[in-house]
Amino acid sequence: MELRELKLAQYRNIAEATLPLDVRFTVIWGENGAGKTNLIEAIYLISTFRSFRTNDQRVLLRAGHREALTSLTAFDPSLGLSSTFEVRIAQNDRSTRKTGSVDGKRVAAAKDFYGRVRAILFTPEDLGMLRGSPSGRRQFLDRVIFAQDRAHIGDIQDYEKTVRSRNKILKSEGGAGAAQQAALLDSYDEGISALGARIWCRRAAVVDAIRPGFLRAFEEIHGPGLAPALDYASGVQLGEGLPARAEVQRLYLEQLQAKRGQDLARGATSVGPHRDDLQFTVFQSPAADFASQGQARALVLAFKIAELRLTRARIGYAPILLLDDVSSELDPSRNAKLFDMLWADAGQCVLTTTSPDFIRLAEGASRRTVEVVGGSLST
Ligand SMILES: Nc1ncnc2c1ncn2[C@@H]1O[C@H](COP(=O)(O)OP(=O)(O)O)[C@@H](O)[C@H]1O
Ligand SMILES: [Mg+2]
Fold first, then answer.
1. Residue 327 predicted with pLDDT over 90
2. Is 227 within 8 Å of 323 (Cβ atoms)?
3. For the segment 70-103, what is each residue's pLDDT rounded down to a tens digit?
4. Residue ranges of domains in the chain
5. Residues 252, 207, 294, 137: is their CA dihedral positive or negative?
6. Smallest CA separation from ligand 1 atom 18, residue
7. Ligand 1 binding site (Cβ under 6 Å of any ligand atom)
8. 10, 167, 211, 231 - which has most CB atoms within 10 Å?
9. pLDDT band at 176 (very low <50, low <70, confident <90, very high)
10. For the whole prediction, is pTM greater than 0.85?
11. In 3-state terms, what secondary structure has residue 264?
12. Nearest C-alpha to atom 17 of ligand 1 is from which residue?
């Protein structure tokens, strides 16, 4: 799959734009606020049918406009065919809706649109995630899964809603309604354990799948030493190997019931994957405390490289890599390593930067450089 052209109309700060994509590297540069991330976001939107920056679709509409269009033309060399994938965002008096279409034909279900263009996103927030909160790391991990399994998005949303509802009931006065409260909690416990087990299994499986590639990529970037490790840290502790989903579900239910008294006292749910963490360690200590900033960034970089290689091995071609302003955050030697690895491992890559000087691609690398000024492109 080769992506050829992105077209936008009334999207964010971009009135109208056509961005031809290089077969390898498309470098988008411009000042802060020019619209670079908006271009990356539009490609991601077509790939995953959601933004990575907002859940509010209205903000994707250019101010003062009620309809935005984003479309991406792709060529499939194995079929010798081009297709156009389009996402339209339209606002009427009551709501704002997103619709996907392929070659002009509307695709009714989001799940049937999603994932036709495979993309991997890497942002400066990802680089800082090791020092951030567990919830940032869970989101980072969930985004890896979103890129390959649409069902995960719905499960996460349903799960979060169920935990909020359960917390509301936990905080409500039992009193005369104690029996009703207990019955409601029973039903939320069922929901949380079923959804929680699905989430747990996907997260644990993706961490297991990425780990070998992560260790290898880290050694390539950083060299030997540091004894890095990557784990999905969870309240669900079992012996060797990944447990079956039914087993995780049973454990969650058991723990939810055992901790109900405590949860009632705290007014919060203490069991479930919303308590988990993606744990990076070096020499058995949390990387956030132990690793230097450069090492922490190398750990995240290694994770993304491993994700890219794993996805490529699974789908049979390299997904498009979206690198938003990452180079400005890395020191020169890590930047050089990153670009060596991109050259070797990535297929198409769209990079943004405030200065093209940060992007030191190999001599002879096929590239197209595009400047963005106030939402307008010039090549
Ligand atoms: N819905 C919108 N309508 C008009 N402008 C918008 C909208 N959403 C964001 N912007 C503008 O887009 C610009 C940010 O673009 P962004 O792609 O994040 O910049 P950068 O080039 O720094 O990555 C800002 O100037 C912001 O005000
Ligand atoms: Mg930006």
1. no
2. no
3. 999 999 888 899 999 999 999 999 999 999 999 9
4. 1-118+319-379
5. negative
6. 37
7. 12-13, 30, 32-38, 59, 61-63
8. 10
9. low
10. yes
11. helix
12. 35
